[in-house]
Amino acid sequence: MFKKKDKFANSGNTPEFIIAGLGNPGSKYEMTRHNAGFLTLDLWAQDENFKIDKLKFKSLFGDVQINGHRCLVMKPQTFMNNSGEALRDAAQFYKIQPENIIIIYDDISLDIGKMRIRRKGSDGGHNGIKSIIYHLNSDQFPRIKIGVGAKPHPDYDLADWVLSSFKKEDYDSLKSTMRNAIESVKLIVDGEIDKAMSNFNS
After folding, report:
1. From 34, 69, 126, 135, active-site residue
2. Most CB atoms within 10 A, among 19, 26, 68, 191?
3. How far apart are CA 69 and CA 16, in angstroms?
4. Does the reported pTM lie above 0.85?
């Protein structure tokens, strides 16, 4: 289970994984669909009593241990479309390979309450993922997609939709999905991504 930073199992005492939730900084974006990654990390920090409040790598981050693995839990502060800059800086500093970078983010192709885990892949039209692939020069990183629902009709502007806020009832139902995402992270860092996909893909 999760423990605050103390003694780490990995002998080098350097982070093994980056876990990044994507979003836009600032109170005006706090409860928007595009901030599903931020909201997931915030819920995790609240549930397990840790802080994501250090500033480095153009991010707010926490330095934590999950099942014996030291991890950086990151909220890039670059705004969504430049998320890759933050991931690149942290990955280069700690020499973390893309396979050990887990990204949590919103997906409009999934209904609210749905979640999908992938071990790698294209950006799927998501600008945050596009930026990460560009700056890491790789698409070989695991990702956890949080369903935020499709546009209400085809003519609805996409930017307006992803920057719209969740209704209270939608956010309440989203919490269980975000907690499933957290549990899947714990499996992935233990090398059990297949189990995570089997347990939580919906």
Report:
1. 34
2. 19
3. 6
4. yes
CATH 3.40.50.1470 fits 2-200, yes or no: yes
d(CA 141, CA 162) in angstroms, rounded, equals: 23
Q: How far apart are the first and last CA of the chain?
A: 24
Return the structure tokens found at 124.
């799927």
Cβ atoms 60, 52 nearer than 8 A = yes
**Amino acid identity, residue 120?**
K
> Residue 85 to residues 49, 61, 119, 148: CA-CA distances in angstroms?
28, 15, 21, 25
Among left, alpha and beta (phi > 0; psi -120 to 50; other), residue 177 is alpha
34 is a catalytic site residue? yes
